Amino acid sequence: MNTAAKAEDDLADVEQVLAGDVRAFEGIVRRWQRPLVNMAWRYCRDRGRAEELAQEAFIRAWRGLKSWRRESSFSAWLFALAANVFCSELKRFPAVNVPIGEIDEPSRPAAQHSILAERLSSEMVRRAVLALPVRYREPVVLYYFHEMDVAAAARTMGLPEGTVKARLSRARALLRRRFPGLEAEQTGMEFATHDAGKEA
Amino acid sequence: MDWNKKESDAMELDRIDEILFSEEEILPSSGFLAAVMERVEREASAPPPIPFPWKRALPGFVLTAGVFGWVGVELARLGVPAMKQNAWAMPQLPPGLMITVEEAGWVALSLGLSLASWLLARLLAGRSGLL
Fold first, then answer.
1. Which CATH architecture has domain A100-199?
2. Positive/negative CA dihedral, B47, A57, A77, B129
3. Could you identify which of A147, A168, B61, B129 might form a hypothetical disulfide with A67, taking C-beta atoms 3.0 to 4.6 angstroms apart as the criterion?
């Protein structure tokens, strides 16, 4: 379904819900359950918790449907509300308590060739994002959730784009400091590819 | 400028981007939609919240305000002559009354702070569109 059609369906369903038809909310949940669960997953990396958080976000959206001003798209409003819910819920019960400094870097990164080892190191980087301070964690989560769109991430957080860019830059610096081996890994892989090409 | 460093940073950023961007999607469980709708319907069928009984509470508010007003006036009445005499010591009050006045002052302060925080919370909630 394209974005314009989705927006029209959202508007129609919202009008119906506001007119008293509770079942019309099902259309909204059906359309947005996947993005919202995935967004929550990026905040906590726990499947069960992600569904709980997404459910809470839908309930809050249902309660506050009247407050959606038609100036922005329904999805932008829903994502901003969901980000708010996820943040406040995770502040009450944090997803991880491990400081970023205590997350191990994968050993001998340049020597990792198996898919499993690479997946493991990627997962460690993703988990390290959750260990970032909140002000840096949220921009990272939302930037990649919105497919590297700074403007969309800024809209969801209700912050200026410049602030989001600055926080992203700082977050990357923290990740880089935590995982210095990533560069070596990439360089090693590039050399290996280059050598393989020459041999062929 | 250290161009080598800049180049290596860019390369590293790409690797971090690649890892964080290539997140696999998860699918909501089959019962997710039904669970959300069940909660929505339960909330929709619940009776509306009972409004705060402002009319009943108003005499209590007026009485409380009167008591604190009276305490304030008494404190000013007793405190001003003492200040005029350039005496920084507490006004001469019977020991029993002194303790009562001091406690009332603390209660007044805490109530004032509670009122201020409530007003601030309402203001912020109003701005966020929750009220």
1. Orthogonal Bundle (1.10)
2. positive
3. B129
Residue A138 near residue A157, CB atoms below 8 Å: yes
With cut-offs at 50, 70 and 90, classify the pLDDT of residue B25.
confident
CB-based contact A183 B35, cutoff 8 Å: no
| Residue pLDDT, tens place only, A76-92 | 999 999 999 999 888 87
Burial classification of residue A16, based on how many CB atoms lie within 10 Å of its CB (0-12 exposed, 13-18 middle, 19 or more buried): middle
Report the predicted TM-score, pTM, of the whole model to 2 decimal places: 0.64
Put simply, whether B8 touches A (Cβ < 8 Å) is yes
Which residues, other chains included, contact A135 with Cβ-Cβ below 8 Å and sequence gap of 6+?
Answer: A167
Ranges of each domain in chain B: 54-127
pLDDT at A106: 58
Q: How much is the ipTM here?
A: 0.74
Cross-chain Cβ contact A147/B28 below 8 Å: no
| C-alpha span between A14 and A78 (Å, rounded) | 12
DSSP conformation class of A101: G
* Fold type of domain A3-92: Rna Polymerase Sigma Factor; Chain: A (1.10.1740)
Judge whether residue A41 has pLDDT over 90.
Answer: yes
pLDDT higher than threshold 70 for residue A185: no
Inter-residue contact A100 to A132 (CB < 8 Å): yes
What are the structural domain ranges in chain A? 3-92, 100-199
Query: How far is residue B21 from each of residues B16, B25, B97, measured CA to CA in Å?
Result: 8, 11, 70
A172:B26 CB<8 A = no
Residue B101 burial (C-beta neighbours within 10 Å; 0-12, 13-18, 19+): middle
